[in-house]
């Protein structure tokens, strides 16, 4: 005898009906969408259209009261509970919802402003962030400060009510389309490298900001390098304390890892389709590879749900987000290798839709091992923060930043 599912409360049932009606009116069912669609674009026009489609979707969510479901009403959210987001995610899984960098920056910046921002910053920026009115980019990494992010050299010098910023950033996704950026800058070169950093909110249309797209191996130019020359940022746009920017930066990075580890459409469905297309669905090695990848996807989904549920309850994550990021990166390599083994030479040609997806899997399968923190950095985080192992020896630990060697 099957065990009956517990009945939902009237409140949950009403909300589920509201979500279903919204999705039916505004989104395309996943069964009707292109199963081989990829989230990268080889022309500026195509990338711009996708970016604006994601922004438009976020605006629709906001206007319907479905953006920031667990965020306070005074900051543009619905003022709901964690279960509101869980119900929405359950219903949205059946739809091909536009996803892009706007979605990820909301996941990174919104909880950071709640945790470290001033009341004025929350009221000013959160509604515009949740509505998609302001699109944000991340201005953290530099040519000489990627994995060792605390080595940043971009300078911000106080001048009255402003900071004047000079420096270069790199690997900035969506910067060419963004309205604002979250910026890390060096404000005290005489302090140890983690202690002299300030977190600033910068207007990307400010004089002195120059964005140059970088073309990737896939032909896309989603990444950029950003040059800042005499850019003035109001001191009121410092998040947290001056010289105390490492704390909000860590919050951003943790939520970035959780987002990367828990986002995206399941790859396993497409691996099964690919195996059937090439007639190897009964090959025991292929079947074992697909089963292995499916089990990893399920474990990853469960881990991600625990992290997101804790974030919605404003609680500390029950597991380190670096574990999700590392697990997702390793799974992506497995899926790319398996797709290439199934399709052979088709994996290096980007003609038909399925070949374009294959091409992106093979060429881009290592990108997730770098973006958002390399696998090596994530393993260090897990070793130190989870396992309690000693830090790597650093002869310059505690020394002023200006005395620390940099690349």
Mean pLDDT: 88
Portion of residues within helices = 40-55%
Q: Which sequence of strands runs across the widest sheet?
A: 3-6-7-10
Q: What profile does the largest beta sheet have?
A: 4 strands, mixed
CATH superfamily membership of the largest domain, which one? Butyryl-CoA Dehydrogenase, subunit A, domain 3
Strand share of the residues?
A: 5-15%
What is the second-level CATH architecture of the largest domain?
Up-down Bundle
Instruction: Work out the count of structural domains.
Output: 3
Cα shape:
globular
Tell me the CATH topology of the largest domain.
Butyryl-CoA Dehydrogenase, subunit A, domain 3
Question: What is the count of helical runs?
Answer: 11
The radius of gyration computed from the alpha-carbon positions, rounded to a whole number of angstroms, is 22 Å
Identify the CATH class of the largest domain: Mainly Alpha
Distance between the termini: 66 Å
Order of H and E elements: HEHHEHHEEEEEEEEHHHHHH
Low-confidence stretches: 1-5
Question: How many strands appear in the DSSP assignment?
Answer: 10
Q: Assign the structural class, choosing from mainly alpha, mainly beta, alpha/beta, alpha+beta, or little secondary structure.
A: alpha+beta
């Amino acid at each position: 005898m099957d065990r009956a599912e517990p009945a939902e409360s009237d409140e949950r049932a009403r909300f589920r009906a509201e979500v279903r009606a919204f999705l039916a009116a505004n989104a395309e069912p996943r069964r009707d969408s292109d199963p081989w669609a990829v989230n990268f674009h080889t022309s500026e026009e195509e990338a711009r259209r996708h970016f604006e489609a994601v922004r438009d979707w976020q605006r629709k969510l906001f206007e319907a009261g479905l953006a920031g479901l667990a965020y306070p009403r005074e900051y543009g959210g619905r003022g709901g509970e964690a279960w509101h987001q869980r119900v929405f995610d359950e219903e949205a899984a059946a739809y091909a919802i536009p996803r892009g960098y706007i979605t990820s920056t909301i996941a990174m910046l919104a909880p950071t402003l709640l945790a470290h921002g001033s009341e004025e910053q929350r009221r000013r920026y959160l509604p515009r962030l949740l509505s998609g009115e302001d699109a944000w980019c991340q201005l953290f990494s530099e040519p000489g400060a990627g994995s060792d992010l605390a080595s940043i050299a971009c300078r911000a010098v106080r001048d009255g009510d402003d900071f004047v910023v000079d420096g270069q950033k790199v690997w900035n996704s969506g910067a060419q389309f963004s309205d604002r950026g979250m910026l890390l800058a060096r404000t005290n070169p005489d302090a140890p490298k983690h202690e002299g950093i300030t977190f600033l909110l910068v207007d990307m249309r400010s004089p002195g900001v120059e964005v140059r797209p970088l073309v990737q191996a896939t032909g896309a130019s989603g990444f950029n390098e950003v040059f800042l020359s005499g850019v003035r940022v109001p001191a009121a746009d410092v998040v947290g304390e001056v010289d105390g920017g490492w704390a909000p930066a860590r919050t951003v990075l943790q939520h970035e890892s959780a987002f990367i580890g828990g986002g995206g459409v399941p790859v396993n469905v497409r691996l099964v389709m690919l195996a059937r297309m090439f007639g190897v669905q009964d090959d025991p090695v292929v079947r074992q590879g697909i089963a292995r990848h499916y089990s990893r996807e399920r474990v990853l989904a469960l881990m991600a749900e625990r992290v997101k549920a804790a974030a919605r309850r404003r609680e500390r994550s029950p597991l380190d987000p670096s574990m999700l990021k590392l697990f997702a990166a390793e799974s992506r390599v497995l899926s790319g290798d398996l797709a290439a083994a199934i399709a052979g030479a088709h994996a290096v040609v980007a003609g038909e839709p399925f070949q374009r997806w294959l091409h992106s899997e093979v060429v881009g399968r290592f990108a997730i091992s770098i973006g958002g923190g390399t696998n090596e950095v994530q393993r260090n985080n897990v070793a130190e923060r989870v396992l309690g192992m000693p830090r790597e020896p650093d002869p310059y630990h505690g020394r002023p930043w200006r005395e620390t060697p940099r690349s």
